[in-house]
Design a protein that fits this description.
Layout (H helix, E strand, L loop, with lengths): L1 H12 L3 H5 L19 E3 L14 E2 L19 E2 L14 E5 L5 E3 L1 H6 L3 E8 L13 E10 H8 L7 E15 L12 E4 L5 E14 H4 L5 E6 L2 E2 L9 E3 L12 E7 L6 H5 L2 E8 L2 E8 L6 E10 L2 E9 L3 E8 L5 E2 L1 E2 L15 E8 L4 E11 L11 H4 L11 E7 L1
Parallel strand pairs: 4-14
Antiparallel strand pairs: 1-17, 2-3, 4-5, 6-7, 7-11, 8-10, 8-14, 9-10, 11-12, 11-13, 15-16, 17-18, 18-22, 19-20, 19-23, 21-22, 23-24
Bound molecules: ligand MTE and molybdenum atom (MO).
The ligand Nc1nc2c(c(=O)[nH]1)N[C@H]1C(S)=C(S)[C@@H](COP(=O)(O)O)O[C@H]1N2 binds next to β3 and β8.
Length: 414
């Protein structure tokens, strides 16, 4: 389609006014703490998360009762890894831009740092967060610094037939795939073994990779990120370079990024096509059908963080994220929804470029002693409401990904 080709070329050459006018959001000054929310006695939730069954792959989870700063310190920021954390020496680091490009690139860390530095404050959430009883703290907010991905892609001179961009991490590990075809030979490195159910398993070493469309990759928000809260990335967060794709669930934010490959077909690696796929059982025209969708953009969500007591008065603090937030409402027990007060950061007026969580506060007054439930729901600037548990988008979902339904916590007032 001609119109699409023109806009695509405009995007790639950076010629359009829309592209020229866009810069990644800059946050001025130091990190706003938790303004006006200091002190008080924290009343811990009664429903504490279950023990973590995978402490090597998932750690540093946010403890909601301890939330006390708008930016999450890097050392406290949750980590999700699927393979062992690779060690990359800064001197050896190269980012290759390959595949369907006219000018392949090989960029050192120094070369990336020499490019104009961009910043974005973005709340990164794992799409599995709040999908499992142990996993309720897979979220953090940081100020990410780096170079524009779009400008590097333009420099590589992407060929017209390229449609998709694969981001390869340096980490890799063994994965076992069921050999449904029954004809796989195992390849050069893979091993085929009986799966115990009359079939065969193929075990291969797979490298972490995630793709997005070229159009999504060209978003001016995306960073080849080498800094977190003004410091070099920690090894567990992707040192020396990771992709930061603001507005996308964690899995798209590829750590230890060493290769960017332009291709002309959909990429079907583990993290696009096998893991991080949401299954729903839906009714279409009276028939039960299963739908399978890839985890992509963040979804509207909020959570109560903690209940605090000042003398006899109680308040509830929380966070909302995943979309530009207009309102947050709180429900105590089965009472009516009542408005919470939002904290607004100065940067947040440019609402379409809002990628950081909003903190909110609810004055509870002097609740009756005993057990209570606290539920929050966020409403975005388009009027969308964070779904209730019985909303079909949540109720029909059988996988734990994208669990953005309303969260209810339990607390006992002493
Ligand atoms: N190379 C690589 N990148 C990765 C992952 C990984 O295992 N390997 N995990 C992804 C997932 S699922 C999440 S939620 C985020 C977590 O980023 P963090 O560990 O810095 O919080 O990294 C993403 N990027
Ligand atoms: Mo994740």
């Amino acid at each position: 389609m001609a119109a699409r080709d023109v806009s695509r070329r405009t995007l790639l050459k950076g010629g359009g006014a829309a592209v020229a006018g866009l810069t990644v959001l800059r946050v001025a000054g130091p990190a706003p703490a938790f303004p006006g929310h200091g002190g008080g006695e924290v009343i811990p939730w009664e429903d504490q998360p279950a023990a973590n069954p995978v402490p090597n792959n998932v750690f540093n989870l946010l403890v909601w009762e301890e939330l006390d700063s708008w930016l999450t310190p890097a050392h406290d920021f949750f980590v999700v890894t699927h393979y062992p954390i690779p060690t990359i020496a800064e001197a050896d680091y190269q980012l290759d831009v390959t595949g369907l490009v006219a000018s392949p690139q090989s960029l050192s860390l120094a070369a990336l740092k020499a490019r104009p530095r961009r910043e974005v404050t973005f709340t990164l959430e794992c799409s599995g967060n709040t999908g499992y009883p142990f996993f309720i703290g897979g979220i953090g907010n940081a100020r990410w610094g780096g170079a524009s991905l779009a400008s590097v892609l333009r420099q590589a001179d992407v060929l017209d037939q390229a449609t998709e961009v694969v981001f390869w991490g340096e980490d890799r590990g063994e994965v076992t795939i069921r050999d449904n075809s029954g004809v796989l030979r195992g390849g050069r490195t893979g091993t085929v073994t009986p799966d115990g159910a009359g079939g065969l398993d193929l075990t291969i070493t797979e490298q972490f990779a995630r793709s997005m469309s070229l159009e999504d990759a060209m978003s001016p928000d995306n960073l080849l990120c080498y800094e977190m809260n003004g410091e070099p990335l920690l090894p567990e967060h992707g040192f020396p370079v990771r992709l930061i794709a603001p507005g996308w669930y964690g899995v798209a934010n590829v750590k230890w990024l060493t290769r960017i490959e332009l291709i002309d077909h959909p990429f079907r690696g583990r993290f696009n096509a096998r893991d991080y796929v949401t299954f729903r059982e839906e009714m279409h025209d009276g028939e039960t059908v299963w739908t399978f969708t890839m985890v992509t953009h963040d979804r509207l969500k909020s959570a109560p963080a903690k209940v605090t007591r000042h003398g006899r008065r109680y308040s509830i603090l929380g966070a909302a994220w995943g979309a530009p937030i207009a309102r947050v409402e709180v429900r105590i027990d089965n009472g009516p929804w009542r408005a919470a007060r939002l904290d607004r950061q100065p940067s947040r007026r440019k609402r379409s470029r809002e990628f950081a969580w909003t903190f909110w506060k609810f004055d509870w007054g002097t609740p009756a002693r005993g057990p209570h439930t606290v539920t929050s729901r966020a409403i975005d600037v388009d009027g969308n409401v964070q779904p209730a548990p019985e909303d079909p988008v949540i109720a029909n979902k059988v996988t734990f990904w994208e669990s953005n339904g309303q969260i209810t916590r339990r607390v006992r007032i002493p």
